[in-house]
Structures are given as C-alpha cells and as structure tokens.
Write a structure and sequence with these properties.
Shape: globular
CATH architecture: Orthogonal Bundle
Pfam families: HTH_31 (PF13560)
Number of strands: 2
Helix content: 40-55%
Order of helices and strands: HHHHHEE
Radius of gyration: 13 Å
CATH superfamily: lambda repressor-like DNA-binding domains
CATH class: Mainly Alpha
CATH topology: 434 Repressor (Amino-terminal Domain)
Number of domains: 1
Number of helices: 5
GO molecular function: DNA binding
Strand content: under 5%
Low-confidence stretches: 80-108
InterPro entries: Cro/C1-type_HTH, Lambda_DNA-bd_dom_sf
C-alpha cells in the first residue's frame, strides 16, 4: 500500500467515525479540543501531536492505534496499547457532553 493510500485511509477512517456519531466537524473539534481546521487536516490524513491523538481516540471511544498505524504512534511516543476513557455522547441537536480535556497545544 502506498503512502498516499495510507493517508487517504486514515482520513476516511476519521470521517467515518465522526459521521457514525452524527457529529459535525465543529462539534467533534470542540469535543476533541482542537480547531475545525485541525480536524479537517486530520481527516485529510495529517499526523497529529501526541496529545491530539489521545484526545481524538478518547472522543471516538477507541485507542489511537485503531486510527493511526503503529509506526506513527511510536514516532509520537504513544503506547499502542493505552486505553482511553469512554467517548462523550453526542446529543440530538449536535451538543456534546464531554469529559475530554482539551490538549494544551492543538496544532499539528
């Protein structure tokens, strides 16, 4: 699989997770603690900072390794088997109740 295919696959996986939750990019970004433009870059396949990867995994209720390849997580110095807390619920109307702590630095 080419690097371009891998990038497209990660972006598609993130979009699918967000859409499965019925969340807009705005709602997901707010819950994750990043800007909408950062979320758009992630959905285009950009590699996040470690704190952002953890927050994304927490929001979607999965480990970062379910989204990003193990070699990316090793580069971010994240454990590939760390467990995240339960994901927030997206209520009707697009509001969220979130326990996610926003990362200190939301830039990629």
């Amino acid at each position: 699989m080419s690097e371009t295919d891998q990038i497209e696959r990660v972006g598609a996986r993130l979009r699918a997770l967000r859409m499965d939750r019925g969340a807009t990019q705005e709602v997901a970004a707010r819950a994750i603690g990043c800007s909408v433009s950062t979320l758009r870059r992630l959905e285009a396949g950009a590699v996040p900072q470690a704190k952002t990867a953890k927050a994304v995994g927490s929001f979607y209720g999965c480990r970062p390794s379910a989204i990003w390849a193990e070699d990316v997580l090793v580069d971010l110095q994240l454990e590939t088997d760390d467990k995240n807390t339960p994901a927030p619920l997206v209520a009707a109307g697009g509001t969220t109740e979130s326990h996610v702590t926003a990362p200190d630095d939301t830039q990629l």
